Amino acid sequence: MAEEYILLDDIIKNHTERMMSLRKYYPFFSIMDGSLNQFRGGEFKNVDMGYTVLAILRFFINENSFNDKPVTYKEYETFVKGILRDGFGLVEDTEELIRFIFDKIRNNGRAFEMPFYDPVNKEMKLARVRLIDSVVKEEDVVYSITEEGIEFYLSTKEVKDKSNITTEQLLLEKLIRSENFRGSIDVIERINIEVSQLEKERREVMQLLLSDVHAGAKAVDEYMDKTSVWFSEERKSFAKNRELVDKAVKKASYSGGSQTIKDVNRLQNMLKLTIENHSMLIVRAAELSKFSDEMIRRSRTRSLKNSFDFEGLLRRSMDSDRPDIMSWIVEPFLQIRRDKSLPISIIDSIAVSTLDDGLKGERKEELKADLNYRYDDEILSENIGQNFAKLFLELLKRIRKWKKVTLEEYLAILEVKFGKDIYKNRDLYSFLIHLAEKEHYDIGVMIESQETFLEEIVVHYLEPELSDYKELSFRVEYGEKEIELTFGEDEVAALSELTFVEGD
Asked: Region 463-473: what's the mean pLDDT?
């Protein structure tokens, strides 16, 4: 019994408030009830009254709020003619229909009256609503949409591509100008809810960006496209409404009652808080965009492959019928090796590496150095020394036999003996550079004492054979011409002309 009493009490107390909330819909259904079936014998019965009314309300919102100007009847007539022409194919003889629709929306200049029962006071009450107001301005009647008209339109369908915050502020401006401060507070609360929803959506986008960069980046773009369009417009509307509230505060402090002053002060405080929250939302949206760019950059860096897909390249070369693509892989391995040392970390790994499985337990073994082990750079140095020795010995043979040898003749001998690949061996050019460090060589003196790096290498690797040439000496003479070396069709090098002459 107690529960039934509580339920009934709740229904009684809230009924009037609910009816006052429903009253904004009453004019629309009253207009719909007076359909066009009876007008001029049903000539325009195919015209949808609901669509036409909502289109007209949208037109008034655009002109009054976005363009900040009242509407004349001529402007209204021009707009509705376009609606009837594009929507229903009516072109001629529509002036009377346009006037009939206008009178229906304005209710012939009277407010729409919705009677309802008040169970608290146990009496019938009357809710009055207007959609369009009129005023005489400069000997002409102009029209504007009321706050009830804006509220009704916003509660049915949002203005396309406009934020709820933007359009709610249109209603807020109307309510402040009409000094309906309690209604303004309700609108501010709805704006706060909308700001909170956008902030919640921003956090959701942030979480998605952290879990999936690709989907998150797409969500960020959609969020920024949706919000950045109206952020600046909303800030302007906030500034305008802030000025109106400040003026209302000054006016209420002098002429308003105590309740009015309380409502205005509360409205002012709520509007300040809403502006701060909205500004913070704009800042965080900008930070979200920067964070998205950084996450995308990091994702691209991590997505770079650290290995090469040989099978994929082979498949692509077969699909495109281009076997020459494989040369892109082979040619780098055929080039001269340029590095002469290994990283220290690799040497350490070789020294301490073990083949035992750690799960079987650790076996303590004495590490012994392999005295015969040679590093790659040592092997390379030995190869270079042997090449220098062969080249120097070949030069000594030609000088002893011909007494005088030009560089061109010397290279021709090397080409015959070692093949044309000799021109691609960088040791040849390194040998000639070292050879040109001195202008005179005495083999006997060189065996006893070495002055250059080349002499040390030659003596080290040619010590047995070099004793046969200890009586030989030669000098190096320089010419002014250059010798061009080619390998196939490609030029390999251009060398200055040299001549090796026996004797002092």
From this structure: 85
